[in-house]
Automatic annotation (TrEMBL):
Entries under InterPro entries matching the protein: Metalloenz_LuxS/M16 (IPR011249), Pept_M16_N (IPR011765), Pept_M16_Zn_BS (IPR001431), Peptidase_M16 (IPR050626), Peptidase_M16_C (IPR007863), Peptidase_M16_M (IPR032632)
Family: Belongs to the peptidase M16 family.
Residues in the signal sequence: none
Occurrences of domain Peptidase M16 middle/third (ranges): 436-718
Keywords: Hydrolase, Metal-binding, Metalloprotease, Protease, Zinc
GO cellular component: cytosol; mitochondrion
Name of this chain's protein: Insulin-degrading enzyme
Domain Peptidase M16 C-terminal residues, every copy: 252-432
EC number of the protein: 3.4.24.56
One matching Pfam family: Peptidase_M16_M
PROSITE patterns: INSULINASE
Reactions mediated catalytically: Degradation of insulin, glucagon and other polypeptides. No action on proteins
Amino acid sequence: MLINIILTTLKCSNLIQKDTVCRIHLKLSRFFVQRRYSSSLLGNLNNMVSKADCTGAGGPCKLRVNNIVKSEFDKREYRGLELQNGMKVVLISDPTTDKSAAALDVNIGYLCDPKELPGLAHFCEHMLFMGTETYPAENEYNKFLSEHSGYSNAYTSADHTNYHFEVSPDHLEKALDIFSKFFICPLFEAGSTEREVNAVNLEHDKNIPNDTWRLDQLDKSTCDPNHDYNRFGTGNKETLDTIPKSKGMNVRDELLKFHDKWYSSNIMGFAILGKESLDDLEKMVADKFKDVKNKNVKTPVWNTHPYGKDQLKTKTYVTPVKDLRSLLVTFPIPDLQDQHKSGPDSYLAHLIGHEGPGSLLSELRKRSWCNSLVGGPRHGAKGFAFFTVTVDLTLDGIEHADDIVELIFQYMKLLHDEGPQEWIFNEYKELLDIEFRFKEKEKPSSYVSYLCPNLFLYPLEEILVGTYMLTEYKPDLIRDLLDRLTPENMRLAVVGKQFEPKCDQTEPWYGTKYTREKLSDEQLKKFENVTSNSAFHLPQPNEFIATDFTLLAPDSDIAPHPTIMYNSPLIRAWLKQDDEYKVPKLNASFEFISPYAYLDPECTNMTHLFISLFKDALNEYSYDAKLASLGWDLNNTKYGMMLNISGYSHKQSVLLSKVLDKLVEFSKNIDPKRYEIIKEQYARGLKNFEAEQPYQHAIYNISLCLFERAWSKTDLMESLDGITREKLSEFANELLSKMFIEALIHGNANKEIAMGIVKMLEEKLQTQLKTKPLLPSQVLRFREIKLPNSKCSVLSQVLRFREIKLPNSKCS
């Protein structure tokens, strides 16, 4: 399905849906790979490539690259190909895989739609699934995949279209044969056209209440009207049926023209993962795809930016569907993909989006103006990009939007004054080196879908490492990019319910209410003439970066399953030493079971608030750990709280000790300002659930029906007002006073190290919190409703959606 998401909103959970995130393969900030690989891994790339005809002169393959750079612990085998028809291919052989997968990426998207037919590229994506000359049945493809433990998906973005599938390994070749015919002999039957127009229309209808889609389209609809970016990429029944018919256009004929013009093998990239050998995969791919026509298509490049002078120095007020508050500061920048080895955009994204002491986020949170912030590059299409700072605002923050913009430029002044820092660049070279070296195995379908676009971005031998391979420190490029982030070269957008009365314009495709005004000279001067702010400083060196990657010798006998290594009235700890992955990583999970956590709606609310405030308080300290791939999380469960620590084992005990120290003292030090902000944010989230998609309501209501004890959103909302900071502090003490901890430690740890972790936890709880163990009868698990056999029950619910009125759209 069509995807074009504002990338810099990904960390702002209020602005993006999880189902959208899981379909996107991206890194907001590419870090910087350091040349610390062994000679067998990187060496001299120029001498690594073995190039030869695959099958001799006239064969289906004209180029083979055998020595693709891969990470140290990647046991899969790779080969790059270029077929005679110009299609680029990466083969992945994994004899241990439980699923096979393949993906094909066409290097054009909806920016190539005819102006009079918005959504045609997306419609073409849909129609390719509807039968081919070899397999004419409409559901042949999906039927075969569903019968063999598989599935398929696709999406259309601004400048590429991606198709992918997954299937059981024994049925890869047949699935590939059906799939390949999409690009050789599609039918585009007239009888299928109307049904798929309706499918596209339903997809658009589903997206209409989604604020992420609405903001993304508003960005396009308010750019230069003569630019191809000024498009409605999804399409709907109006653009693909009603308007074309009124103009005497045959959409099927236009679809055939579009496919014939753009679907060319020389702008296609293909990736396949299977249990077969590389030679067998190569033979399979060459046989299936050799007949895809090469039309020698040249893909467009949009060197003119969609933000012209009329679109800059503006401030847009937007009314959201949900109760959201956010500030978006956007700067037009050139497409920097050809500078991926120096990454000036990634360098600035790392600093502007930093969350540690002295950062922009740190200062905004101290002023109680902000919940979260993310800054970084956003791809537009080939030739242009954006640099965006997105701030999730508090109630007070939305009243200080201009002051926040001023702070952003004060921080940029710091970056100007300090200049590019090679030590920061080198530190992240090390981080990315580590990340690539110990990269974990991806889900097959996600992996091949992600690799396909990379075939257009990097040489075949760098297809895996290219995203990590930023090796050239170029301070001049950093300065040049920073010089573009100015008030004169900026667009502002402020999103909030309070602006509804002044929003007198309507975006035509989603019905988003907005109003736009030019920034005054006074505002621009205020932003341009900022002074230094002593609260800001560059980050300190990251002390959490692991340097010891020693794999610990296993104990004499490693059990195949976790075994109990410690059992006391307070803690039961399980250990599973890693004997499969053999990487220097450790995962430690602790479930704090307390009968108070889910006792009633009020207790449930207080557990959630306590955890949210605790994570909020530790964010600044733990941000460096997160950058170093050392993560921690604390979440509420129906039984209490779940603490997870994961990452490289070397520095993990340092982080765990700090988290536990904070936990045992936190109830005495709940910040009153952060309490009010977090409570309001939580209440808003409960209320905003009403605007979620119907399927999410269905899943939620199933849990209410089946669980023995479950509190509805209404129950939680009604019990929230009676909670005070003092009451929460008392509850936190009670929550931690009696409990039972179930622990699991897995990875690069022997019994001695694991026992040290468990004993540290037990000692802190018993000596500092005086925690007492629960009685065995109190450690109970909730039951679920047993459904009667041969009976069916239906729960119906009317959803209260806000009605969104769309204007009469115009398409010329």
